[in-house]
Amino acid sequence: MEQTRERKLNPIIEKLARLQQLDSEIFKHQCIAQEKPQQLAFKQAEIAQWQASLNEFAAKNKEYRKKTDMLELDLQERQEKINKLNLQLNTLKSNKDYQTMKHEIEAIEADNSIIEDSILKSMADMDAQNKKIESARTKLAELEKDLCELKTQVDAELKIVESHIAQLNAQRAEMIRDVEPEALATYERILNNKGDKIAIIQVNDESCGACYMNMTTQELNTLMKNKELVLCKSCSRILYI
Ligand SMILES: [Zn+2]
User: Fold this and answer.
1) By residue range, what is the domain housing residue 60?
2) What's this model's pTM, rounded to 2 decimal places?
3) pLDDT at 2
4) Which of 34, 123, 190, 227 places its Cα 20 to 30 Å from the Cα of 184?
């Protein structure tokens, strides 16, 4: 059965079908070659994301640092004021003045205690940010190392794939010398228009093997005669039976 079909197959079709096999192989390797750098891009995107997080943590940390510094400065000024008032306190003659200043000192002291709590809170926030910064840095170092390893691996794999593609292309250049120019031009026009790089396809169960369009009896008869190139009415690929 297979032998009969082989014998009957138009030689042009036969050459194009063989060329298609090779082109599909080339396409497969080109896809692999295109995918490889994408692996690097994914890793780089992940690194960029972590870097952005790290910047965010660092900016927040700076804010908390600034806030803590301001609160500490405020507290220091208040403490100095208390010291000054305490010195003055002993120089006061009237009991009323003494009590007034004493209250003033107590009020400042009460506020200071609130400020001290705020300082503790702000320092705890800083601590939390520092921990986040530290883990982001660790993660980034890991990712950078991964990227470096991946790059070496991808480069090596790409080299192999590209040399394979070069070999296949050399084979192709040899093969097309033997294909009738007009048929080759038709084939290549279709090939370049198709995303899946399939230009010639076998009819399967009386329909196009690529787009599954059913053949009419007349089309099937023309195909069976095996004399001219028949294109699928739906997807324009070259058909054979
Ligand atoms: Zn079709």
Assistant:
1) 33-162
2) 0.71
3) 46
4) 34
Residue 155 inside a domain? The answer is yes
pLDDT tens track for 121-179: 999 999 999 999 999 999 999 999 999 999 999 999 999 999 999 999 999 999 999 99
User: Per residue, what are the HEC states of 35-102?
Assistant: HHHHHHHHHHHHHHHHHHHHHHHHHHHHHHHHHHHHHHHHHHHHHHHHHHHHHHHCCCCCHHHHHHHH
Residue 75, judged by CB atoms within 10 A of its CB (0-12, 13-18, 19+), counts as middle
**Segment (H or E) for 133:** helix 95-176
CATH number at residue 154: 1.10.287.1490
Ligand 1 ion: nearby residues, β-carbon < 5 Å: 208, 210-211, 213, 232, 234-235
User: Nearest CA to 214 among 234, 194, 187, 191?
Assistant: 234
Q: How far is Cα of residue 176 from the mean position of the Cα atoms in its chain?
A: 39
Question: Hey, which residues does 34 pair with through a beta bridge?
Answer: none
Residue 232 CA to ligand 1 centre (angstroms): 5
Question: 226 lies in a domain?
Answer: no
Contact 119, 71 (CB under 8 A): yes
Q: How many domains does the chain have?
A: 1
Task: Report the C-alpha gap between 116 and 187 in whole angstroms.
Answer: 82
Rounded mean pLDDT of 56-72? 96
